[in-house]
């Protein structure tokens, strides 16, 4: 009896410990970011400002985590086909790029291009002239959204219109998409009219949206081409010098660009909550860390194979993200809460359906 009771207690304790193993570093990082937000608020305006900074940072972190669920699933999809060394590289150095590159360098780069200023002046503007900084970020909103939406559109089309795809979550819709995908250059024939239509119907900045949209589409093909080329070279080198631990540069490059593309809307949309550069970096950094933890969890626990439709849910989430980013070009701001909520709901539904399907097959 005592042994049975010990086993039951151990079973109850194991899941929280397991989750702490994967998410402990993210929780610690979040605590540090929230403390820094409070300190910054106290420095700039006292206790009331400190509380406001804490709430803003926490809100940004939660919303970025929710809207990035599909990001974690897509990362896991590609990582599961990489060797151990490449996985470790992405989870460590890739995380540095995600947190510091997209959350710190990218917003400064946007202001540099929008205001035609140098990085030092852009950083000074971000820290000490938040209103002017926010103005330049908003000025670049259409170009950034069009580029990011077009790139993610290509990612979604590449998945849904893949004629080799065997598993379909929405049978009729996905079967038709896979059938259309057999047509030569189907991705270009689908994406080009959509980008042209989005640019023509936009009330302002039609030319900028068109150029940015085609830039996003071409970037997808450029990165995909470089990835395929490097993978072919890597395969040739493996035949000459076998090395199971070789760094898969092509796949890592594609995954880094794909991971970065998920951040476009988050960086720009964060200004709906605050125009403080420090808070945006801290809040979005929290979300990036949780994406890392979720990615590691999905890969280590082999969740992608256990949950049949979670990958589909992630790509439907990407399609929703593309729609939300496109609507913002017409002045329709759905808000971070709605965007994050719908994306997270799609993922949750795909998980529930996957569990139901698994129980039916095993039962």
UniProtKB/TrEMBL annotation:
<dbReference type="InterPro" id="IPR007427">
    <property type="entry name" value="DUF475"/>
</dbReference>
<feature type="transmembrane region" description="Helical">
    <location>
        <begin position="312"/>
        <end position="331"/>
    </location>
</feature>
<feature type="transmembrane region" description="Helical">
    <location>
        <begin position="90"/>
        <end position="116"/>
    </location>
</feature>
<feature type="transmembrane region" description="Helical">
    <location>
        <begin position="144"/>
        <end position="161"/>
    </location>
</feature>
<dbReference type="Pfam" id="PF04332">
    <property type="entry name" value="DUF475"/>
</dbReference>
<protein>
    <submittedName>
        <fullName>DUF475 domain-containing protein</fullName>
    </submittedName>
</protein>
<keyword id="KW-0812">Transmembrane</keyword>
<feature type="transmembrane region" description="Helical">
    <location>
        <begin position="337"/>
        <end position="356"/>
    </location>
</feature>
<feature type="transmembrane region" description="Helical">
    <location>
        <begin position="20"/>
        <end position="44"/>
    </location>
</feature>
<keyword id="KW-0472">Membrane</keyword>
<feature type="transmembrane region" description="Helical">
    <location>
        <begin position="270"/>
        <end position="291"/>
    </location>
</feature>
<keyword id="KW-1133">Transmembrane helix</keyword>
<feature type="transmembrane region" description="Helical">
    <location>
        <begin position="50"/>
        <end position="69"/>
    </location>
</feature>
<feature type="transmembrane region" description="Helical">
    <location>
        <begin position="209"/>
        <end position="226"/>
    </location>
</feature>
């Amino acid at each position: 009896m005592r042994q049975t009771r010990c086993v039951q207690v151990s079973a109850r304790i194991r899941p929280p410990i397991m989750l702490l193993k994967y998410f402990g570093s993210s929780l610690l990082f979040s605590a540090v970011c929230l403390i820094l937000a409070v300190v910054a608020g106290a420095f700039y305006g006292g206790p009331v400002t400190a509380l406001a900074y804490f709430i803003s940072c926490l809100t940004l972190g939660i919303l970025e985590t929710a809207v990035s669920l599909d990001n974690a699933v897509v990362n896991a999809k590609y990582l599961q086909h990489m060797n151990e060394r490449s996985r470790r590289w992405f989870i460590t150095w890739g995380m540095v790029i995600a947190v510091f590159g997209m959350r710190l360098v990218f917003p400064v780069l946007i202001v540099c291009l929008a205001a035609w200023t140098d990085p030092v002046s852009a950083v000074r503007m971000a820290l000490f002239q938040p209103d002017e900084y926010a103005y330049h970020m908003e000025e670049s909103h259409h170009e950034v959204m069009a580029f990011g939406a077009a790139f993610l559109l290509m990612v979604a089309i590449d998945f849904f219109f893949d004629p080799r795809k065997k598993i379909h979550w929405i049978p009729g819709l996905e079967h038709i998409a896979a059938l259309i995908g057999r047509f030569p250059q189907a991705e270009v024939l689908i994406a080009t009219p959509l980008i042209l239509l989005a640019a023509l119907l936009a009330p302002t900045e039609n030319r900028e949206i068109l150029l940015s949209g085609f830039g996003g589409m071409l970037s997808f093909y450029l990165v995909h081409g470089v990835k395929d080329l490097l993978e072919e070279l890597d395969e040739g080198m493996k035949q000459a010098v076998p090395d199971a631990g070789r760094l898969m540069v092509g796949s890592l490059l594609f995954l880094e660009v794909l991971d970065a593309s998920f951040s476009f809307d988050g960086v720009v949309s964060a200004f709906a909550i605050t125009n403080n550069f420090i808070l945006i970096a801290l809040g979005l950094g929290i979300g990036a860390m949780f994406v890392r933890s979720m990615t590691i969890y999905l890969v280590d626990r082999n969740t992608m194979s256990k949950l049949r439709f979670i990958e589909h849910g992630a790509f439907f989430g990407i399609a929703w993200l593309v729609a939300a980013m496109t609507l913002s070009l017409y002045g329709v701001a759905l808000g971070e809460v709605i965007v994050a909520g719908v994306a997270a709901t799609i993922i949750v539904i795909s998980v529930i359906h996957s569990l139901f399907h698994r129980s039916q097959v095993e039962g």
